[in-house]
Specification:
Elements (H helix, E strand, L loop, with lengths): L5 E6 L14 E6 L7 E2 L6 E10 L4 E10 L4 E4 L4 E4 L10 E3 L2 E5 L6 E4 L18 E3 L5 E5 L1 E6 L17 E3 L5 E5 L2 E5 L4 E3 L2 E6 L2 E5 L7 E2 L4 E6 L2 E3 L6 E2 L11 E5 L2 E3 L15 E2 L4 E5 L2 E3 L6 E2 L8 E4 L2 E3 L3 H4 L8 H5 L18 E3 L7 H4 L16 E4 L52
Parallel strand pairs: 3-4, 4-5, 4-6, 5-7, 5-8, 6-9, 7-10, 8-11, 9-12, 10-13, 11-14, 12-15, 13-16, 14-17, 15-18, 16-19, 18-21, 19-22, 20-23, 21-24, 22-25, 24-27, 25-28, 26-29, 27-30, 28-31
Antiparallel strand pairs: 1-2, 32-33
Amino acid sequence: MKNNMKTKVMCAALSLLVLAACRKDEDVVIDDGDQSEVVTIDENTTHLNGPMRGTLLSGKTYFLTGDLIVPEGEEIIVEECVTIIAEGDGGPIGPEITVHGSFISKGTESCPNLFSVPVNMRTEANTFAGLWGGIQCSDKAKLVYLKWTRLEYLGGEGGPGTPRAGKIRYGLWTLSSDTEVIIEDCHFYGVKDDVYRPVGGKINLMRNTFEFCGETGGDGLNVKAGTVGNIAYNVFYGSATNAFKPSNEGDGTVQSNINVYNNTILNGGWRRPGLSRGANINYEVGARGAAFNNIIVNCKRGIRVLETADIPNVSVDNNLYYAHYQEMVDEFIPSDAVTSTQATLGSNNIYGGVEDNNPLFVNYDVSQFSFTDYNAGENQPRAMNQNDGANLRLSNGSPAIGAGVTSISPVTVNWKYAVGAYAPDVMQPSQDLGAYPTSGNGNKHN
């Protein structure tokens, strides 16, 4: 790895309990490569390593043999039907894509992109092995655009000169309120810690699917200070902790403002010991926003709003809860945040007792797992954490049909880089709950 140019940035995170996912502030040194040695990708390129720019061509397979660095002011565009195999150099630390400029993956529904590891390493034993480092951004990064892209087996320790040097990497990490991230119609499978941790930034996460995310901790989206945007029409199977956690923790000058709506969240929170966290949507530490039109099934806890959140500017309404066990019902309003959560609740949340308000998915048995299964940690049934032939669309008679609110608008974001062909698809809320409204305009997976 080149070490000729180094940029010093701050990593904002707060040291909490041993079980917390955050870490204390510290300086990290990020290798920006020698821009005089930037390689331009052409039709003969097969291996990705070091500072590069250019276009990965449709239909080709590329091998990530070391850290691929996108220098400041440069971009890499990935056309449709591209496969990137993270092979590494044989050492103990898997490679990553380090972004100081822009990284754009333009998969399509008919021909998505795949970022994975060699076929022989795509095993059950490696689900949380963190075999490669995903996409790690410095505070100079402008745009990360992921469309119809599947990313697998992410995490693992970061190498010297990278944003997460010596620490477990998140699937995607950004460090600036100016960085813009579009993730639409993507699929994440097997992430050791957080799928995406934005320390500031402008985000749009629409119609994605998450499976096996967080080994014994970590969130799907773990927002820090200065992050604004929307999270909607996503499906989350079996998060270790929270599916989505908006927070304003850190030193950002922009208040985190996140709307979380029309998501379907199943079996969340059970791999995280104790009741120290939420299990689906968790607002805390000065964050504002709205959580509405979500379907929450058999999660360890309900939507949770801590007293440290910007409570007057948090609203929680028109969400449907289903629980197969009383222990789940007891935590619909989390026991460690009763007063603060209740202060944000509207009058249209759908609560009940054990087995009340079955959302009537077309093909998914909400009663298939025992309470022992939920508490089995790494021995949970795999079907609890992935789509095992499920169809989460709504059958006729579902209480989720027509129960949504459409008068709440998505958070307004002033996009600078995500414009034109890369403009986000910011979907409006639906009159139905969950990721698959009967209009057919929601999640497109399965």
